[in-house]
TrEMBL record:
Residues 92-190 form the GS beta-grasp domain. One of its GO terms (biological process) is glutamine biosynthetic process. InterPro entries: Gln-synt_C, Gln_synt_N, Gln_synth/guanido_kin_cat_dom, Gln_synth_cat_dom, Gln_synth_gly_rich_site, GS_Type-3, GSIII_N. Residues 686-719 form a coiled coil. The keyword Coiled coil applies. This is Glutamine synthetase/guanido kinase.
Amino acid sequence: MATSSVRKAALIEAANRPIRNVAFPERDGRAMYPSEFYGEYVFTTKDMAKALPKPVFADFLKQKRGHQTLSKPTADAIAHAVRVWAMDRGATHFTHWFQPQTDTTAEKHDSFLSFQSIGGGEYAAIDAFSGSQLLQSEPDASSFPSGGMRSTFEARGYTVWDTTSPMFIQKAPNNTKILYVPSVFISYNGEALDSKTPLLRSCAAISKAAVELLSLISPRSVTSQPPAAQVVTTLGTEQEFFLIDRSMYAMRPDLKITGRTLMGNLPPRHQQLEDHYFGHIPTRVLSAMSELELELYKLGVPLKTRHNEVAPAQFELAPVFEEASVAVDHNLLTMELLHKVAHRHGLKALFHEKPFQGVNGSGKHCNWSLSTDRGENLLEPTVKPETNYRFLLFLVAVLDAVHKHAAILLAGISSSSNQHRLGAHEAPPGIISAFLGDHLAEVLNAIEERRGLKTFSVPHFQSVKLGGTVVDLKVSSLPNITRDLTDRNRTSPFAFTGNKFEFRAVGSKQSPSFAVTLLNAAVAQSIREITAALVEQKGNKEFPSAEDQLEVIRKYIIASKPIRFEGDNYSAEWVTEAEKRGLPNIVSAPAAYDELLKPLHSDMLTKHVAILTPTELDSRYHILMERYAKDMLVESRTLLSMTQTQVLPAAFEHRKMLADSATGIESLGMKPTVELEQLATTSDLLEGLSKSIASLKALTKTLEDNEDVKQQAHAARDELAPLMQQVRIGVDGLEEIVGDKFWTLPKYTELLLTV
């Protein structure tokens, strides 16, 4: 079968693919409510309380809260209880599930089946799971990224149960299941080899700093409630992605190898009519999303929203916020399961930030806030934020942190894939700024200028004073609506959205761990500095007065003011303005990584907040640089292979057809004007492409031979990327004119408009 026929057959297969139907859970002849089966595959605290003796359960809670270590008897009791629970539901194996520095997860399965000696050289088969097996496992550490912390011959590493994240079971083939034990991953000497350990440290650091600040401004002597004992970082991760037909995906080596298309032109119609966003979800996609939700609900993942995104074949899922470490686990679990479920529906999930040039890219919007153990959101402005000094203190702490450490926040979201999205006109640029909205901006300005608040006029509606929330729609059949204190700014990388900040710049393919870790660390340091400023301001008084708090708030409003921007972050004027304010504009991922080692940021991470050791920070820097360079070189090799083995042969066939046609027309005594024009255009494109290919080959070889990863990464960004784009321009020019019957690769029309 000719290649063009294979492409045609794939299109027919995609068009005729049947819809997969999955039965919704039923009970007593009726469809169950999601709340009835939510979390049924999770070994919850409630399940543990039922299965364990009260003293053992009490010991576990003390350990979970950091008040004591987990004893062997307690670990053995929990291991026995969770094994029985899991095996009663069909589990045969267990695994320590962890997050190496690859933006993915890792697992090694061990069976519950064990063998016990009964004497005389005989053994009896038993099912067992000990406390030591629950607490730790020993995967090979040498093959995971370590940034030089581990040598290849030093293989030992440990996974350790993370008691803050619940265990759960997942389906395996043949109707069996596996018990998953969320874990951290450390080296033989105790260094953090994973993404989760620093995240947990940063959560602990921000909790300690926030509790100290709360205790200072709300001492027990003046409040009826005891001060908060813990402050948790909360996180809700909106996940964007593309779903394309699997048969189309299978015929694109660039998508399979790199996650994005390295060549291809936009179809005549894509997203320019703005009709896909929030539109009707395609039937196949809705079927896949429904099955995914069923599985995730059983795993305790609180998915709330699903909808079409801006680009064709682009979609979004969003959960309710949770404690940050659990939210990260659930986000990675969502991505893993989406891959599996999409496969069952003949679809392929693409998480690359920019899989298709020219249309909207995908992000992972991280909705971040702080909450006390009493459930109080510390970033809730309330009706009168101007007098809510607790809110204002935490607000200016966040602004101060983002202002001082914007450069490393960029490092946390920079990658070879996200660089294609950042700065494009659907995502925040490489300048970090914070958006508050008119109302909160006015509150801070009024405090800074020591004046009263202004009254706002809402066009076409009613005059609304700051703090007012009702909007009259002037239509008698419609009710009045409640209006938030702030509007949304989709161009802002760090926007306040009611009672949280939305960190919009995180890439869709990235784990949220590193970005949130850096944000937590920076905010923890700023909270500590504000606490120290309050202590100095109050002098000999027992606690800082309202005037003392207001003075410190004013000081930090002024200091952090350059980071606040209420306008269009995509505009050229903002780039100029940001430069005047002294804000970093770092458009290169390797340059952003370099910021991690600058004293301002490295001292904060390793000395002041101390969530990483110098060795751990240095290793992460080298891992990021090495990963960037490798990603770029893989893309270059893939582009060269596809161009030489698929694009050029197709162009040669097209040129031969034109030449034969021109010869045939000339033999009839006519002038082959059109054929000769097309032949010249094709030849010119081929000649230019051939030169670009030769240059790309040479540069790729030079970079591969360079063992300095820093030089390699910077050269890949500054030299390799432009040359790859040059090759792409040549290829895309040929795609526009080469006969469709010769073109072997599915085009954007087929990739984006087939689901």
